[in-house]
Amino acid sequence: MKRFSIVAAPTNEATKAKAELEQLYSTVTLDNADMVVALGGDGFMLHMLHDLIDRELPIFGMNKGSVGFLMNEYKEHSLVERLETAKPYIVHPLRMNAVDVKGTLHEAIAINEVSLLRETQQAARISITIDNITRQKEMICDGVLVATPAGSTAYNLSANGPIVPLGAGLLALTPISVFRPRYWRGALLPRTAAIVFEVQDAEARQVSATADFNEVRNVRTVEIREDRNHSPTILFDSEHNLEERILKEQFLP
Questions:
Q1: Strand-strand pairing, 4-8 and 35-40
Q2: What residue ranges in 34-169 does DSSP mark as E strands?
Q3: Distance of alpha carbon 191 from alpha carbon 194, whole angstroms
Q4: 179 to each of 141, 143, 212, 228, 244, how far by Cα in Å?
Q5: Which of 85, 119, 139, 242: CA 20 to 30 A from 34?
């Protein structure tokens, strides 16, 4: 059995569960761990994936939050057995290169999505270029996002974007409250696509860009592509793996 460390979100419920589990199992510090048990919700899982992205430690989450889409059910018993039989899912994150109106470059990683949102009362005007071909000269909207398959059931879904099955090799490009072109619902793109958003009249019609929880204000251009240098791993109980959850989500009322 590989050595594991337990980390918890800063909530009473999660920290209490951590203390109880550490009484039951032999654990090590995070620096000495081969894998991590994370107690919290999806937000905490995202933070842990970001914090450990260079070490690429597999993370087994147990839900002590709200939705818990990326988490397993919390159980005190049989944790070692669950870790030994867990199924891995390798996350392919996105890399965002955003240039603000002052010309400063900002880089960030996104596990779920990169989203652009207007900052003022005026609608954003955004052009979309994919693999050096302009596909939308001007989209008038509140914003736009690009989601990974793992993130397609998060913000992308609430913006009426498609759920993307794992292994499909696709990214979801989804407009947010689009006005023109009317009724445009977005596109499915190959995971190899290089996507560039350019904000028109960026100083007056200010737009922010966010990679998961890392926000850049007043952007002019945003380039997004899959990050091939990182491959964090999430572990799931074999009977409740992420492929099944994403498939099931498409049939919920």
A1: parallel
A2: 35-40, 59-63, 87-90, 94-100, 105-110, 113-118, 124-130, 133-141, 143-147
A3: 9
A4: 5, 10, 25, 34, 35
A5: 242
- Please count the other Cβ atoms lying within 10 Å of the Cβ belonging to residue 160: 12
Please tell me the total number of residues recorded for the chain in this structure: 253
Q: Which of 7, 3, 212 is nearest to 96 (CA)?
A: 212
Q: Of 31, 34, 42, 237, which one is the catalytic site residue?
A: 42
- Domains of the chain in start order, with CATH, are 4-91+231-249 (3.40.50.10330), 94-226 (2.60.200.30)
pTM for the full model?
0.90
Instruction: Tell me whether residue 42 is one of the annotated catalytic residues.
Output: yes
d(CA 168, CA 17): 36
Over residues 73-93, the pLDDT tens digits come to 999 999 999 999 999 999 899
Measuring CA to CA, which residue among 180, 178, 175 is closest to residue 161? 175
User: What pLDDT is stored for residue 183 in this prediction?
Assistant: 87
Cα 58 to Cα 76: distance, rounded to the nearest angstrom: 19
